[in-house]
Amino acid sequence: MNKFLPEGYRIQTEENKRAVSTPARLAEAMERGTILEGRVTICDSSHNLWVELPGMQAVIPRKEGAVGIREGTTRDIALISRVNKPVCFVVTELTCDAAGAPLAILSRRIAQERCQAQYLDACRPGDILPACVTHLEPFGCFVDIGCGIPSLIPIDSISVSRISHPADRFTVGQQLRVIFKGREGKKILLTHKELLGTWEENAAQFQPGETVAGIVRSVENYGIFVELTPNLAGLAELKPNVTVGQHASVYIKSILPERMKIKLILVDVFAPSVPEPAELHYFIQDSHMDRWQYASAASTKSMESLFTSSV
After folding, report:
1. pLDDT, tens digit (0-9, with 9 covering 90-100), for 208-266
2. Which of 110, 277, 301, 302 is most exposed, with the fewest beta carbons within 10 Å of its own?
3. Which phi and psi (to 5°) does residue 7 adopt?
4. Dist CA 218 CA 242 (whole Å)
5. Which CATH class is domain 199-270?
6. Residue 85 burial by CB count (10 A; 0-12/13-18/19+): exposed, middle or buried?
7. Where are the domains of the chain?
8. 3-class DSSP state for residue 165?
C-alpha cells in the first residue's frame, strides 16, 4: 500500500484509528516511524497546530508544520488553512505538559520530506498518482499529491472539453487521479485529461437519434458547443438566449469519427438544478501510461501525449 497518500485518505482507516487510540500504540508508531493522520482543531497564536487524538493532547510545533516553514519559503497560511482538516504526521516525542498530562509532539515536515524523497522523487513521467483537490484558482486546480505536498493541474490539462474555471469540473476535497508529467526545477508537472478517455471511447457512449444531457461550454458566432462528457463536445446551431454554463438537452443528429465531430440540435436549455460538478469517470485504471492518443483512428488529426521522457 502507498504510505504517502494525500491527507485525508487514511484518517478513517482502521489501521490509523488503532495506532492513535492509546499512548502505548502511539509509542509503537513512533518506534516504527509510521505516518499517521489526525484532525487539526486549533492553530494557536504562535501557529502551532493542535491535533485531535483520543485521550491525549498532541501538537505540531510551527517549524514542524510543513516543509519550508523553518526556511521561510513556505508561508504560515499553509498552517492556518489546515484547521478542521486532516494532517499527516510522525510522532517525534511522547512527553507531558506543564500540568503533567500526556502530550505527543508531532512533525508533519518529516512526513513530507520522506514523501518527497521516497515517493515523489522516484516518480516517472506517465505514473498515475492519487490526489486530492485543495483549492481552485482561475488558472488551475491545486492538489495534494502526498502528505500535503501541493502541485498544480493547469486548467488546459483538466479536460479536453474547455471550461471557464476549474470549479466547473472539481470541488475542494474531491479525490482524483492525476498523471505525473515531469519536473520543471523543483516544480512537479501534472495532467488529468488523459484519464478521461479518447474521442472514440467517449463517443461510443452515444448514438445518433438519442436525446441526451449536456452543458453549454462555449457560444461562438458559428454555433454552440455543448459538452456531453468532460472529453467530448458537440456543435449545435445558434439559438437565442443561450449562455455558457447552462444545462441542455440535445438531440444527436450525427457522429462523424473521420472528422471527430458530433452534430447536435439544441432542444432546451435551463439553469442547473445541482451546481456540483458531475462525478468523473476514468477510462484508465492502470498505474502508468506511456502514450495517449485522443484522436479517432478514422481521423487524420493528431492529439497525443507522450510520457516516455521527462518534460
Report:
1. 999 999 999 999 999 999 999 999 999 999 999 999 999 999 999 999 999 999 999 99
2. 302
3. -65, 135
4. 10
5. mainly beta
6. middle
7. 14-118, 124-197+285-306, 199-270
8. coil
> DSSP string covering 116-180, please?
HHHTGGG--TTBEEEEEEEEEETTEEEEE-STT-EEEEEGGGT-SS--SSGGGT--TT-EEEEEE
Residue 215: name the closest of 163, 165, 257, 158 by CA: 163
- One CATH from 3.40.50.2300, 2.40.50.140, 3.40.50.880, 1.10.287.610 for 124-197+285-306: 2.40.50.140
The mean pLDDT of the chain is: 94
Q: Using one digit for the tens of pLDDT, what is the confidence trace for 279-306?
A: 899 999 899 999 999 998 888 888 899 9
Eight-state DSSP code of residue 292? E
**φ, ψ for residue 189, nearest 5 deg:** -100, 130
Q: Which of 112, 180, 108, 119 is nearest to 151 (CA)?
A: 180
Stated pTM of the model = 0.91
Give the dihedral of Cα atoms 215, 246, 177, 234; nearest 10 deg: 20
Q: What does the alpha-carbon distance between residue 131 and residue 144 come to, in Å, rounded to a whole number?
A: 5
DSSP assignment, residue 121? G
- Apex 175 CA angle, 50 and 271, nearest 5: 115
Q: Are 19 and 144 in contact (CB under 8 A)?
A: no
Distance CA 230, CA 215 (A): 10
Q: Report the run of H or E that residue 269 belongs to, with start and end.
A: strand 261-270
Residue 185 has pLDDT above 60, yes or no: yes
DSSP notation for 14-52: HHHHHHTSSHHHHHHHHHHT--EEEEEEEE-TT-PEEEE
DSSP 8-class letter at 127: B
The strand pair at 102-107 and 57-60 is best described as: parallel
| Cell 497525443, located at residue | 304
The C-alpha cell that represents 51 in the structure block: 491535533
CATH class of 14-118: mainly beta
